[in-house]
């Protein structure tokens, strides 16, 4: 059982984390943060293995991984 | 549930003004993780010449000196001779280290000063507005023109040049393109810092980075662009190692 936590305000919508996830569990939100950017979100955390690849790839240190 | 990965110790949780998709902060992350894991962050000084990395100023706990454009290795030489017990890093860009400060970078390596030079290679001048740099690929578009080999020559492979010298202890090139590349870059970074700390030798590490704004490529398409164009010209690996 693992999950990620996203700091919505720091996300700049570069979408590098989407390609980093081997299970394609991430997507971009429909809503905007206060800077006018979409942010990444994980709609379903049941399949997440906590491999931390998305957090390693994220340049802005938005993602924190819990396991 | 416990935290398994987050912001490394020493970096503040604030938003920086880097472009979306810029991998400069991945470099900062692996530097901080390496320094933390080796336990030497408290005695490290970093010189920062002009470049995009100044956008991160004040967001991390490390002693820094800002210096003239291209003179990172020259200022680091003074630091390391004055304080040989400290670790000295020079964090530079490709235009900064290989074009403007070519003489300083090259002769610091040739003298074998006790320092680690970290060069971010994104094949273009980032902060000054996308001008052509020595590592710009043949046929790549920049604001000062398209590189044509008959007029401006070919991309400079600086680590390969340094690897032919006698004095450097560790010379490597890594990429910041995928999680796999970043983990490899962290291993190289730790070796470069250990080379300085344990053996007192010069070490050089070049990190290939994305620059979506000045390449004119969407961040999500950068990986494909880089794999097709950059990695064949700039191979990843260790060119000289003292271990």
Task: Explain how this protein is built.
The complex is a heterodimer of chains A (67) and B (243). Chain A is of the alpha+beta class and 67 residues long. Chain A has a single domain, classed as Alpha-Beta Plaits, CATH 3.30.70.20. Helices cover 15% and strands 18% of the residues of chain A. Chain A is built from two helices and four strands; from the N terminus they run βαββαβ. Chain A has a two-stranded antiparallel ribbon with strand order 1-4. The N and C termini of chain A lie close together (6 Å). The relative contact order of chain A is 0.38. With 243 residues, chain B is an alpha/beta fold. Chain B has a single domain (24-144, 151-240), classed as Thiamin diphosphate (ThDP)-binding fold, Pyr/PP domains (Rossmann fold). Chain B has helices at residues 24-38, 72-82, 94-100, 102-111, 149-152, 158-163, 179-199, 212-215, 222-229, and strands at residues 3-5, 44-48, 63-66, 87-93, 116-121, 141-142, 145-146, 170-175, 203-208, 237-240. Chain B has a seven-stranded mixed beta sheet, sandwiched between helices. In chain B, strands 6-7 form a two-stranded antiparallel ribbon. In chain B, α1 crosses α7 (179-199). The longest helix of chain B has 21 residues, at 179-199. The mean pLDDT of chain B is 92. The interface between A and B is medium-sized, with 29 and 29 residues.
CATH topology descriptor of chain A: Alpha-Beta Plaits
CATH class assignment of chain A = Alpha Beta
Rg from Cα of chain B: 17 Å
Look at the structure and give the CATH class of chain B.
Answer: Alpha Beta
- Output the strand order for the largest sheet of chain A: 1-4
**Tell me about the biggest sheet of chain B?**
7 strands, mixed
C-alpha termini separation of chain A:
6 Å
Q: What oligomeric assembly is this protein in?
A: heterodimer
For the record, the count of structural domains of chain B works out to 1
- Average pLDDT figure of chain A: 91
Unreliable spans of chain A are none
Work out the radius of gyration of chain A.
11 Å
What CATH architecture label of chain B applies? 3-Layer(aba) Sandwich
The fraction of residues in strands of chain B falls at: 15-25%
Biggest sheet, spatial arrangement of strands of chain B? 3-2-4-5-9-8-10
Task: Tell me which CATH architecture of chain A applies here.
Answer: 2-Layer Sandwich
Give, in order, the helices and strands of chain B: EHEEHEHHEEEHHEHEHHE
Could you give the order of the helices and strands of chain A?
Answer: EHEEHE
| Biggest β-sheet description of chain A | 2 strands, antiparallel
* Number of DSSP E strands of chain B: 10
Low-confidence blocks of residues of chain B: none
